[in-house]
Design brief:
Elements: H1 7-19, H2 28-56, H3 59-85, E1 98-101, H4 103-106, E2 116-122, H5 128-143, E3 148-154, H6 155-164, H7 166-173, E4 176-180, H8 182-197, H9 201-219, H10 237-251, H11 258-261, H12 267-291, H13 300-309, H14 320-350, H15 358-368, E5 376-377, E6 384-387, E7 390-393, H16 398-401, H17 405-416, E8 419-420, H18 422-429, H19 437-440, H20 443-453, H21 459-469, H22 471-475, H23 477-480, H24 496-511, H25 520-525, H26 532-541, H27 552-567, H28 571-582, H29 586-593, H30 599-609, H31 612-627, H32 636-654, H33 662-676, H34 682-689, H35 694-699, H36 702-717, E9 723-729, E10 734-742, H37 747-758, E11 762-769, E12 774-782, H38 788-806, H39 818-821, E13 834-838, E14 846-853, H40 858-868, E15 871-881, E16 884-893, H41 902-916
Parallel strand pairs: 2-3, 7-8
Antiparallel strand pairs: 1-2, 1-4, 5-6, 6-7, 9-10, 10-12, 11-12, 11-15, 13-14, 14-16, 15-16
Helix pairs in contact: 1-2, 1-3, 2-3, 3-5, 3-12, 6-7, 6-8, 9-10, 9-15, 10-14, 12-13, 12-14, 13-14, 14-18, 17-20, 17-21, 21-24, 24-26, 24-31, 26-28, 27-28, 29-32, 30-32, 31-32, 37-38, 37-40, 40-41
Organism: Roseibium aquae
Region (Uridylyltransferase): 1-377
EC number: 2.7.7.59, 3.1.4.-
Length: 937
């Protein structure tokens, strides 16, 4: 800490300030000058600490420097109060005090924004002098801008409260003398150890583990969340603290290094603990300095800057921020390993005691809720024992004798529902060198692995245990490359390895019939598969090539062709797995961004799939993949789109699509509708049958055709030129808005503007035009309210604004600036605007695919830009993938033709790219507030 703060010089300067007032430091003017001097000293020292952190990157040392600075400031303030403000010549026995750091500060570490936790220890009672000194110190610290947690107690009070309050007990456990009467602090530590800590470790461990579990539940149970809380999250600093609290309390040690002497940790494990702590402290200190506040969440908007400060650089296939976050998640994984090692050491030391002690009873009761029984051999698995439903090894050499036992242990645990004994996990971790090329090529080892992967029990849980133990990444090295790998985007909630393992869990849920409400079709289809194991293998490998410079789907297929024969799959099975991986994104992309009523979409997709069995496999894999991305990513609307694509494609693969010609299909659709409209006059039915163009009858479902007919009939009878219908769909999690209005190129733009203004998020839009000049637009917005009646009222508010905008009674927002619209985490991302113009995806339309950084009002700007280009929109499909949006428009020119002119295509690209960037040019469009004439033609 040399050179950080010169305490003697500061004390001399403060003493000099009092000389003109006869040494009376209580004068308000003197106090103001003292405070200014301390602020200057503190600011300079913190600036120096920040500079040294940027220079040496030593996080733990930075935290210790800040703690040292705080110690010195408290000592200086205490001395000034003692000698210049409340000086007493002959203090009584009660006029003594010790200033003690507790909590995190007691460990001698502080982050830039940390609270300063102080305990003012008194001998046996409070005095007026003591109150004055404590108050002076606290107010001085508060005026310095510090957040101070404090308590003033006698030693007896500390002991009494420590026994009854676990938070106070934990704080005092970290007590460290700062200044004042040192003997008081020493007495507190000695009595606390004898009167509180001794023989109470089981109680303390139970409380700390319960507290940890509750904290994990609040923060998110996975340590692989892509925006982790570095202090409170799983695998964060608080977990390290809990680890040391338990060890310190139980083994009654004062430092982490003593755990090596006690045999709790090996030297390598201790070094891993120190490195993990140093890394997390570096991240935390940088985060506090960067944000200027005690921010603990490593959010997207700061991750890249932290990565740069820590010196990470870009590598092929991985950005600097992704390399930094991978390191972070590996450290979080190490902390999990250290926790398991400590548990193993605690049990190993005490389980052999004949009567057992509090810790042993606690561990067994906490985990199993019953008295331990004798260990028994596992049938058919020599070398393994089971005790109280926990699998353990019979000897330390079981893995050396047969390395395949490293796989067999997990297979036995999965098959029988056993927990893994911490001692066995510890030995597995130390035996990882046995997982070599020879074991990877061993037929029995691969059989065991495939049995785990395709298990009908709980493959997700078992694979996660294998991953945490390090076995999975070594047995499948390509999987090891994606362990702790983070993708820097808002779409994926977990690291790649966690996503793959979760996707296996979702697949198992579907197979067990536990996901029927989310996607009933996949639940039904999985029971009809000819070969379920190709699905599980493809699921496990589908993202295994992430982080490589090439397309991960193609690279993943190549990896599958290498791994599948090793796992014992046949050539045909290998081909199917490779095909599924190569095309694992196709069904999701087509369902969300293509017009599923366009015959070309379906025939092209059927050409990719080629067989009904592959269609089933791809649907189930797609559902599980999306659901494993993160909470809320899969919804009813996406499920509906996937089901529609499946049902539209299925006849093409079974020959059913050729039974009726287009003309026959149109006539059948008309006849079906006329039959359902038998309550209409015959003339009205005949007239209505001619109000729609042929493609309407082919792409609109029977129920929607009936609803449209009734809406239009009602409007005709009332002579209304505007009509609306709102229909909530709870299962699909969308609300359907149907708009009948005179056709106009800007109609969809007005609808999008009204949705933007009311906060409604459009997920899909279908535009139909009648032969008599009306537009029949169907808009799907994301559902927000759980109750149908509430959602109906919300939908009516949207349609009311649409009506007012169309009649000129309300103004819609002006164009939105991309810079102004981006907020919070979105600012961290850069997604280049890209516009693709494609005439091959549809027989009747030019398809515009617009991608870029999502922002409020983007669809509004895009539709207005399209209207300035004099294009008619046939349908619009909106897909959002985290921060990236992909909007697809099926368009024609005003004569109903595709856009074939190359020059005009370039103009479209330029104009829409500008709109994505918030630079929309409305010079060719009518003002937004101008009403659309409400008459046909």
């Amino acid at each position: 800490m040399n050179g950080l703060i010169e305490s003697a010089d500061v004390r001399e300067r403060l003493t000099a300030l009092t000389r003109n007032t006869g040494g009376d430091g209580s004068d308000l003017k003197i106090r103001t000058m003292v405070l200014a001097e301390l602020k200057k000293t503190m600011t300079a020292a913190r600036d120096e600490t920040r500079r040294r952190l940027m220079e040496d990157g030593r996080g733990l040392v930075c935290a210790q420097r800040l703690s040292h600075l705080q110690d010195e400031l408290i000592r200086i303030i205490y001395d000034f109060a003692y000698f210049h403000v409340y000086r007493i010549e002959n203090p009584s026995a009660a006029e003594r005090m010790s200033v003690v750091a507790v909590g995190g500060y007691g460990r001698g570490t502080l982050a830039p924004g940390s609270d300063v936790d102080l305990l003012f220890v008194l001998p046996y009672k409070q005095t007026a002098w003591g109150e004055q000194v404590v108050e002076y110190i606290l107010y001085m610290l508060w005026d310095l801008g510090l957040k101070v947690g404090h308590a003033t107690r006698t030693i007896d009070e500390c002991i009494r409260l420590g026994r009854s309050d676990m938070t106070i007990r934990t704080a005092v456990l970290e007590a460290r003398y700062i200044w004042g009467d040192e003997a008081l602090a020493a007495e507190l530590v000695e009595r606390f150890d004898e009167e509180v800590v001794k023989n109470t470790s089981s109680e303390f461990i139970a409380a700390k583990l319960k507290e940890r579990d509750q904290r994990h539940k609040r923060q998110g149970t996975s340590r692989y969340l892509v925006e982790p809380n570095i202090k409170e999250g799983k695998g964060g600093l608080r977990d390290l603290n809990t680890l040391f609290w338990i060890a310190k309390y139980h083994y009654r040690v004062r430092s982490q290094s003593e755990l090596v002497k006690r045999g709790v940790l090996s030297r390598a494990e201790y070094n891993r603990m120190v490195k993990s702590e140093d890394f997390l402290w570096a991240v935390r200190c940088h985060l506090h300095f960067l944000t200027g506040r005690p921010e603990e969440r490593l959010s997207f908007d700061v991750q890249r800057e932290i990565a740069i400060r820590l010196g990470y650089t870009q590598h092929p296939g991985m950005r600097d921020v992704e390399r930094f976050m991978k390191h972070y998640f590996l450290v979080a994984k190490d902390i999990g390993d250290l926790t398991r090692i400590l548990c193993a050491a605690l049990e190993d030391q005490h389980v052999k005691e004949p009567e057992g002690n509090g810790l042993t009873r606690f561990v067994r009761r906490f985990r199993f809720g019953r008295t331990p029984g004798p260990a028994k051999p596992v049938d058919g698995a020599p070398g393994f024992l089971v005790e109280n439903n926990r699998l353990n090894i019979a000897s330390e050499t079981v893995f050396e004798d047969d390395p395949a036992n490293l796989l067999r242990a997990f297979q036995i645990a999965d098959k029988n529902g056993y927990y893994l004994h911490p001692q066995m996990t510890k030995v597995i971790r130390r035996s990882l060198k046995l997982v070599d090329a020879k074991l990877r090529s061993d037929a029995e080892a691969n059989r065991l692995f495939l049995s785990i992967l395709t298990s009908r029990h709980n493959p997700e849980k078992t694979l996660r245990k294998m991953n945490e133990a390090g076995v999975l990444g070594r047995f499948v090295p390509d999987f090891g490359k994606v362990v702790a790998m983070m993708q820097f985007n808002m779409y994926h909630h977990y690291t790649v390895d966690e996503h793959l393992i979760r996707s296996i869990g979702v697949l198992a849920e579907i197979e067990r019939g536990e996901s029927g409400e989310d996607h009933p079709l996949s639940t039904d289809l999985i029971l009809t598969l000819q070969n379920r194991r190709v699905l599980y293998v493809a699921m496990f490998l589908h993202d295994i090539a992430k982080g490589r410079p090439e397309d991960h789907s193609m690279a993943g297929a190549r990896i599958a062709r290498k791994l599948c024969p090793r796992f014992g799959l046949s050539d045909a099975e290998t081909d199917t797995v490779a095909w599924l991986i190569e095309h694992h994104l196709d069904m999701s992309t087509i369902a969300q961004s293509r017009d599923l009523s366009d015959e070309r979409t379906i025939t092209d997709f059927a050409g990719i799939v080629q067989s009904l069995e592959r269609l089933k496999l791809l649907l189930i894999l797609t559902v599980a993949d999306i659901r494993a991305v993160g909470p809320g990513v899969f919804n009813g609307w996406k499920g509906q789109l996937l089901r529609t694509l499946y049902y539209e494609t299925e006849p093409h693969l079974t020959g059913g699509h050729s039974k009726l010609s287009h003309r026959q299909a149109i006539e059948r659709a008309k006849t079906e509708l006329m039959d359902r409209l038998d309550h209409w006059p015959e003339a009205a039915r005949a007239t209505y049958a001619e109000r729609h163009y042929p493609h309407y009858w082919l792409r609109v479902s029977a129920d929607r055709r009936l609803a449209h007919a009734e809406l239009i009939r009602k409007a005709d009878l009332a002579s209304d030129r505007l009509a609306f219908e709102v229909r909530p769909h709870a299962f699909e999690a969308v609300t359907e808005l149907t708009v009948l209005a005179p056709d106009h190129p800007r109609l969809l733009s007005v609808i999008a503007g009204a949705c933007f203004a009311t906060g409604a998020n459009i997920v899909d839009a279908h535009i139909d035009t009648t032969t008599d000049g009306f537009a029949l637009d169907t808009i799907f917005i994301s559902r927000e309210l759980p109750d149908d009646d509430d959602e109906l009222r919300r939908g009516n508010r949207v349609t009311d604004l649409i009506a007012k905008a169309l009649t000129g009674e309300a103004r819609l927002p002006e164009t939105t600036s991309k810079k102004g619209a981006l907020k919070g985490r979105m600012k961290a991302f850069k997604v280049s605007a890209e516009v693709l113009v494609n005439n091959t995806l549809s027989d009747d339309y030019t398809v515009l695919e617009v991608s870029g950084l999502d922002r409020p009002g983007l669809l509004f700007d895009l539709t207005r830009a399209i209207s300035t280009l004099n294009l008619n929109i046939g349908s619009a499909h909106i897909s959002t993938f985290g921060e990236k949006v992909v909007d697809v428009f099926y368009v024609t020119d005003l004569t109903g033709q595709k856009i074939s002119n190359i020059g005009r295509q370039e103009i479209i690209r330029d104009r829409l790219e500008a709109a994505v960037d918030g630079e929309i040019d409305l010079s060719a469009a009518a003002p937004v507030a101008r009403k659309i004439t409400l008459h046909a033609g």
